[in-house]
Amino acid sequence: MSLMLGMTFCACDDRDLATLNDDITPPVLNTPHPSEVTLSEAIADYNAIRISWDAPDYGYQAPVSYTVKMDVAGNSFADAIDLATTLSTSVLINTRDLNSKLFLLGGFGGQLMNLELKVIADIKNTNIEEQVSNVVTFKAIPYEVVIVYPHLNLPGSFTPYGFGSWNGEGTEFSRIYSLKSDDRYEGYVYMVADGDPSKPVEFKFTKVNWGDGEYSYSGTAGSLVSGGGGNIPLASGGYYKVNADINSLSYSVTKINTWGLIGDATTGGWDSSTPMNYNPATNLWTVTTTLTTGGIKFRANDGWDLNYGDTGADFKLDAGGDNIAVTAGNYTITLDLAGPVYKYKMVKN
User: Domains in the chain, please, with CATH?
Assistant: First the structure.
């Protein structure tokens, strides 16, 4: 009896218990297929790349969730975005989705991007540390997407390009835009009545046309009312930066007397602006000037409240952006502030 009891206790003590492997093998990420892609809108509904990896080894079977991270090569995943989350060990990435993620990482249409991927394995609702894979690289060229931004029209007593006047639909040159689709609008509009900048000007805001969303003067400067109200008054005509916030029913107008170049590449350095000339017929600001090797920016009214640089060197202007690098030479420079995206052009003479 004693022998039998002893054998029973030994059997109980020797049961195999499931234990976590102390040496977890992390997931191994494979090179995407294909490793270099050129995206286009023609294949937007098709898959662009397949990403796969070998599952980690935890020492036992576990339900693992995987997140694929993507960032620009050399950025150490500091600004990484989630490309996909899955319970599988592979994922297909749609062309349209990949293209939009590339733009979130600062990509531009037609420009090659060097990218890095990694995959993170996680067992949810446990205290087991996430397992991070190796890093692989791939290349992609995104395509430019034409974005239709929400806008407000500015019908008024002035005659904009296209002869909109009090036409509620407005024109391209009498609109301001909401780049984030958040009902906060901004733009530059030339408003002169009867060709005389000294004459006062009045205007309102419409979303589509009269009756489709109208925002008018409340009687207090900077304040709007929805629906019927007064015309917003301007003491004189001219070139204006116009902002409107429909969320708070507010607006602001800033008269732009001059745009100029500033920077160590200009004759005035960082102390004085080189003035640009405005042409109402083209709605463009231009200047022809000789520059030295260095940097420039655009600024309004000889001050820094409104200044634009070019972060990313894509010829699209960013408020307070990076200096625009130039090499020595004589240039004709054009500033285009019509439409939702502000642009510039430099032509070496």
Answer: 24-141 (2.60.40.10), 151-255 (2.60.40.3620), 259-348 (2.60.40)
